[in-house]
Amino acid sequence: MKRRVISALISLPLLATSALAGPAVEVLGTDYTFANRIEGMPEKLSDFTGLQINDFTTNDGVRLSYWEAGSGEPIVFVPAFGANGAELINQLWLLSQTHHVYVLDPRNQGLSEETPKGARIARYSMDLNEFLDHAGLEKTVLAGWSMGVAVIWGYIDLFGTDRISKAVFVDQPVSIYTHADWSEEERLDAGGMTTSPERMIAAFQGAPTNQQVVDMKVVHRSQMLDSPYAQNAAGLTEAVIDVDPASTMRVLFDHVTNDWRDVIRNKLDIPVAVFSGEESNNLPSQAWIAETVPDGRLYSYTSEEEGDHFLMQKNPVKFVADLRSFLAQ
Description:
The chain is of the alpha/beta class. The chain is built from 14 helices and nine strands. It has one domain (22-328): Alpha/Beta hydrolase fold, catalytic domain (Rossmann fold, 3-Layer(aba) Sandwich), CATH 3.40.50.1820. It has a nine-stranded mixed β-sheet with strand order 1-2-3-5-4-6-7-8-9, sandwiched between helices. α5 (184-190) packs across α12. The longest helix has 15 residues, at 121-135.
């Protein structure tokens, strides 16, 4: 059953298709009219004439799809847990006016293949490396949202930063799992939000919970769809992406239990932009990242600016303007 939400924590998109490549409308087999008409944005998917959907096969035989548009300096987006190129349609459109933008659908997400193989962040990071090879990107900006940031941290841990010009991190805790011997300061710096990965995963699947088991603010904020941009992206996702929660959930335990503090302290030798906001309980950890890396900048959005885990979705115009400013520095 499809659900109209922008959160990858709530909507778990997956579509099994044959390998196709070309203009988005042709690959999807349908056009789509956005519910909200917004000045400067396409009214229909077919108005986005340069949008392509292509794919490649990983070294373990999994077909991964990716969305791309524009020309110029490349930017590769790795979306959140369960998310995909359809959910980033606004970012694709806005950034494609000045950059060559890619969104990689991770395995078991979006238009990529459903598979029981590789449900680990390390494998997702290898997939990202293979995508850079496939696309011929010797130097690029890497941008991650939520779990997509962890995939980039895993990539940097494995392969370093030689191919990355700058990095963009949108509201990903450094360690979702809170260790029992941490002080409260350590928990806040790491962004810990649960002491039980199993109970956290169950809560995201609808099991009863409370704020001491897991921080549920991210789920609550995902359901606040007052932004017409977010509504348009959610509508497109609902129309063209099917949902298979069991497949997408496979990676979540591994994602929750990783601690990336050593990577942030020792391996981020490139300029880094970190995005968060007043309505995200991750904000202290995002400030810690920006303060810890040698060249970091924190972009903190107010409540009025939709400063939550979905700020990129709800306020894409400001996000893209801030991103362009960072890239121009």
